[in-house]
Task: structure prediction
Amino acid sequence: MGDFNLPYFDWSAVTYPVDGIHDIFAQCVFDNGFTQFVTCPTRGTHILDLVLATDPQSVFNMSIDMPFGTSDHNSVSFSLVVPDSSDAPTSGDSSTSVVYDYSKADYNAMSVYLNGIDWALVYADCTSAVELWSAFCVVLQDVVDKFVPKLNVKSHSKARYPVKIRKLLTRKVAAWRAWKSTGSEVGKCKYLLYSVDLK
Result:
């Protein structure tokens, strides 16, 4: 996910210039089996901000909304399907949870471990893409459990912005929607003023 700044890539027709940038990116997308999910412009008339995934079923509820702060790019929001966490470590205390601390993971050991895997043996009994993916996920979870330390994290109630900020956010959203529906310069100016006030 991010701003890939490829203005001449037409994602609906899957066409792009052969310029040493767009075509190389396209080859990377195709070679790795990525699906690109953003279908509406994110800046002007171009789709610059992309969401890529190898599983076409993993991203849903895609929407393009107002920019963050004073950015000239629209924001992209979406939902992501993640594996069931019922097998993840849990704590007896309902106010804490156990999470992986990836900042302290031993990535060198992970690499060595994964290089030692006999993938032909792992996939030997798999007869479908789903079984291949499941076998891969089992190995991946094993690597994470072995080489990523766990932390106990206290759960906190969701923090809320002060009333003044919430009112400004509401006005900013309303101004953005009005600007987008009318395209007027006055609407754009109102939206930008609220954006600056919230900065």
Notes: The first helix runs from residue 22 to 31. Residues 21 and 183 are 32 Å apart (CA to CA). The chain is about 40% helix and 15% strand. The chain has three domains: 1-82, 85-154, 160-199.
